[in-house]
Amino acid sequence: KAGVTQTPRYLIKTRGQQVTLSCSPISGHRSVSWYQQTPGQGLQFLFEYFSETQRNKGNFPGRFSGRQFSNSRSEMNVSTLELGDSALYLCASSSTVYRAFTEAFFGQGTRLTVV
Amino acid sequence: GQQLNQSPQSMFIQEGEDVSMNCTSSSIFNTWLWYKQDPGEGPVLLIALYKAGELTSNGRLTAQFGITRKDSFLNISASIPSDVGIYFCAGQLYSYGGSQGNLIFGKGTKLSVKP
């Protein structure tokens, strides 16, 4: 069974630009969550999507947005990039439907560098 | 954002030694997860704990869900060189009705080989 796939693995962008990251969850998983990882703040939750709906949102500015498609693939968008957005962006998928307990499996991440 | 207190921050191991790390929180969690992350990769799930007091093993790894639901520990027995990496604890809340709570992560414990 293929794992969580994130593309691209690496990105370099300039301040003010926007960027779109992609995540394909494990087959059959309908929940996709996004996390930002930085040396200073560690792993921080961005948002979670389930059945094309945002179900949960972390404490990030509106420049960070996402969406999920009918095949459960998800994209994350960051507009008007700032230097502080440089981070490893991780996507996690889980098979939650109505089960309370789930396990989240992570992709390899997209390393975004803003210059 | 909300984070767990994970300790120690770093430790050096010699092959064959046992290793112990723990996480504490001021909040009660319903699930505790332990992950390992290698450089440039996403976190890999090691152990998931679902019930207060639960003790679960995965090979040389053993983790426990604290009785108060506010803490968890991870033990690695007879460490080997490939155990080197960063270990993260994560707590998860959930609400009945299908909405999965996001993961809240500790800052990590970095395991290195003793020089």
Structure description:
The complex is a heterodimer of chains A (115) and B (115). By secondary structure, chain A is mainly β. Chain A has no helices and eleven strands. Chain A has strands at 5-7, 10-13, 19-24, 31-38, 42-50, 53-57, 64-68, 74-78, 87-94, 105-106, 110-114. In chain A, strand 7 and strand 8 (74-78) form a beta hairpin. The model of chain A has no long low-confidence stretch (mean pLDDT 91). Chain B is mostly beta strands and 115 residues long. Chain B contains no helices and eleven strands. In chain B, the strands form two sheets. In chain B, strands 2, 4, 5, 9, 10 and 11 form a six-stranded mixed beta sheet that branches. In chain B, strands 1-3-8-7-6 form a five-stranded antiparallel beta sheet, with no helix packed on it. At the A-B interface, strand 4, strand 5, strand 9 and strand 10 of A face strand 4, strand 5, strand 9 and strand 10 of B.
Strand-helix topology:
The complex is a heterodimer of chains A (115) and B (115).
Chain A: E1 5-7, E2 10-13, E3 19-24, E4 31-38, E5 42-50, E6 53-57, E7 64-68, E8 74-78, E9 87-94, E10 105-106, E11 110-114
Parallel strand pairs in A: 2-11
Antiparallel strand pairs in A: 1-3, 3-8, 4-5, 4-9, 5-6, 7-8, 9-10, 9-11
Chain B: E1 5-7, E2 10-13, E3 19-24, E4 31-37, E5 44-49, E6 55-58, E7 61-65, E8 71-76, E9 85-95, E10 99-105, E11 109-113
Parallel strand pairs in B: 2-11
Antiparallel strand pairs in B: 1-3, 3-8, 4-5, 4-9, 6-7, 7-8, 9-10, 9-11
